[in-house]
Design a protein that fits this description.
There is one protein chain. With 193 residues, this protein is an alpha/beta fold. It contains seven helices and seven strands. The protein has helices at 9-19, 25-40, 57-78, 106-113, 117-129, 141-148, 151-154; strands at residues 2-5, 43-46, 49-51, 96-103, 131-135, 163-169, 173-177. It has a four-stranded mixed sheet, with helices on one face. It has a three-stranded parallel sheet with strand order 1-5-7. A hairpin with a 2-residue loop joins strand 2 (43-46) and strand 3 (49-51).
Amino acid sequence: MVTCNLTKLESAVDQIRKAYPKLAPADAGLIAAALSLTGRHAVAVYEGDKFVWPDDNERLLQSMSGHLRSVQEAIDATTPPVKKTAKAAVVEEEPVNVNVGLAPNISAGEALLKTREDLKTLLSDIVAEGVEFVYNPSDIGWQWALDRANWSTVSAGELSRRIKVKAVFTEGAVGVEIGSAPKKRGKKGEVEA
């Protein structure tokens, strides 16, 4: 499995060169850039439909709106009404996650490689073997769009902030979000340096 850091392309080039030592350095750079595009422009998979970034943005949002309204109704039905007082304690509620699958977009990577059929074949082989994408949420087009969508307008109603829409890699790819690991806590009395 090849690891492709979408934030640091040079580390993806290093991974390609280690995995394929006989590949010319320029070709390794092209493969790394193409592999990065397959992750950045991943195809969204939601309820059996596929959506291409950025052309199908509105179509995906409309497709998700009915499901999000149902989730909001379920949250409203299970949440007891809270009296608002000056001294009311703020209760932190667990967010409800709604996931959108992401599949590597091989055609986006192949578009960068143009007429290099040998590199297109290698790219599809790498994706078929499995890829681990390391990324910030803003590196992936769909996550960026989902974070900025005005869900209240799209769903023609009020959605709570408890609903979190998350794009996750599937179909042979794994995603590791940078900075998503919980903070380590030291033992009592230890001083952090």
